[in-house]
TrEMBL record:
It comes from the Bacteria. It holds the Pfam family DUF1415. InterPro entries: DUF1415 (IPR009858). This is DUF1415 domain-containing protein. It comes from Cnuella takakiae.
Length: 186
């Protein structure tokens, strides 16, 4: 049986995925700036049930509140959320937490998962790779920052369609290999 990666390796794999896939494919035209600024917080939470993930999410929100130099955060969840449907319930719970804790409009949750499947799409649709990450993860973004970059972008509504077209043009084999190469970091 394959030994699970250490948290440091999981973070390195996630960083490579951000650089090679998210930035490299221009899926998020705003990510390169934060990579260059080194303003991204990464945390790994292993074998955590939903309640512990939500408690950790609260801590990360407080870190973001207390440190404006951290632009965005990734909570990497290598176990317990491998089922995409179970993961989606976690995303829903995270969004409820933001509302209950008074963070709605301040932060937002973006979702990435190795088995990401857009509603109505086929599992073999390469477009799913725009959100297929090395591990299940919750991505916290500052709403004010998102608004600023969206307002500055010439056509922010075209981003999802552009990403889908790019992934489909590259094809399933290419997109799967690109993400898989990120797992080779040791």
């Amino acid at each position: 049986m394959k030994q699970p990666a250490s948290p440091e390796v999981m973070i390195a794999q996630t960083k490579k995925w951000i650089v090679d896939v998210v930035v490299g494919c221009n899926f998020c035209p705003f990510a390169a700036r934060e990579v260059k600024r080194d303003s991204i917080l990464f945390e790994v939470l292993e074998n955590a049930p939903k309640a512990l993930v939500l408690a950790d999410l609260r801590k990360i929100l407080q870190q973001l509140d207390n440190n404006p130099d951290i632009e965005t955060a990734f909570l990497i969840l290598p176990q317990n959320f491998n089922s995409f449907s179970v993961y989606l319930r976690l995303v829903d719970a995270a969004e409820v937490l933001l509302r209950k804790e008074g963070y709605e409009g301040i932060y937002q949750v973006a979702s990435f998962h190795p088995g990401y499947l857009f509603a109505g799409s086929s599992p073999s649709d390469p477009a799913n790779y725009t959100n297929r990450s090395p591990y299940p993860m919750l991505h916290l973004l500052r709403e004010a920052s998102v608004s600023r970059v969206v307002d500055a972008h010439p056509n922010p509504h075209a981003i999802p369609e552009t990403n889908t077209a790019f992934a489909r043009q590259k094809g399933l084999v290419y997109m799967a290999a690109l993400r898989e190469a990120c797992m080779e970091v040791k």
